[in-house]
Amino acid sequence: MKNVIYANARASAATRTLLGKERLFRIAEAASAQEAVQILAETGFGGGRTIDSPLDYETLIRAEEAALIAFVKEVSPSEKLTKFLLAEYDFHNAEAVMRAKYLKTDVAPMLAEEGLFSAETLKEKIFADDYSPFPAPLARALHAADELFVSGKADGKTIGSLFRRALYEEREKLAAKDALLSAVASAKADAANIAAAFRSRDFAETQKQFVPGGTLKEEELKILCEETPEVIRDKFRFSKRKEPVYAAAEDFSKSRPLVDFERMADGWALKYLKAEKYNDEGIRPFLSYFYYKIADAANVRIAMSCLLNGVAGAEIKERMREAYER
Asked: pLDDT class for 277, splitting at 50, 70, 90?
């Protein structure tokens, strides 16, 4: 196991390179997307890469994601933590390769950055029906996907749900006996289940989409699916998930997409870590840096997309997720 103190020190030093809320607001208030790109260049976002057009901003984001993954692989103090943080990339790419396997499409445009498994390894093993190198939840999802495609019962929603459930199962397994990782994993799982409940408003459908690892009980999900916002607020007024449930209920009551809820859910783990920003216990500094870096990328994506579509700076700032504050 690598040294936890060393990993936290490296993460704390790297925190100085985060864009942070102040710079992100500068980007949001830029006069144009081109000016925003110039601000990003000044901060070193994208690792020194240049782009010919603001439309190519994803190139900068992908470079940052690749650098973060490399950082985790090099510095993470434990194999378990590395797997926990990078699982999402592997499960996303495995799903993409599985779709390409049966739909006969080019997988490259569907791939995210590589996690623990290279794209070539995933393609080689999945096309050969050899799932032995992969974590058990992913292997089971791949076998189940094979059966759905072969039987003609596969569709985008079903396959997506299959791999999403597998990802949360893997996170739950890796977080076992670690209070901090368990808190992060359960927050993410609860957010996914709250979203599923409010989007479908159908308990049977929500059960199909249910992901493991959270704290919400079956009867609570049923309330989220079937009751009015007023009843939901009353039932959850003492719940540890009150804040996100209230945000989702407010969005639903105003017949709008889960905008406020999604902003809160994306930053939920960070809010938990941020509440104890001076607590250096365990892997907290390392974990905080990872999620702040993810938030930077998400906020740049939001800002650039909005600027290219003529959205005003004030509205862009309202859409931004939790960000690091110096």
From this structure: low
Tokens of 176: 């076992």
pLDDT at residue 270 tops 90? no
Domain locations in the chain?
1-77+283-326, 79-176, 179-201+212-267
Non-local CB neighbours of 209 within 8 Å, separated by 6+ positions: 161, 164, 193, 196, 200
CATH architecture of 1-77+283-326: Orthogonal Bundle (1.10)
What secondary structure letter does DSSP report for 176? T
Residue 52 DSSP class: S
Could you tell me the two tokens for 15? 């925190």
Contacts of 23 (CB under 8 A, 6+ apart): 39, 43
Q: What is the mean pLDDT of residues 91-108?
A: 97
Q: How many CA atoms lie within 13 A of 114 on its CB side?
A: 11
Helices (H), the chain: 4-14, 20-28, 33-43, 57-75, 79-103, 119-127, 136-151, 156-175, 179-200, 203-209, 218-226, 229-235, 242-253, 259-266, 268-274, 284-308, 313-319
Structural contact between residues 122 and 94, judged by C-beta atoms closer than 8 angstroms: yes
62 closest CA partner among 323, 300, 308, 229 = 300
Does residue 281 register a pLDDT over 90? Answer: no
150 falls in which pLDDT band (50, 70, 90)? very high
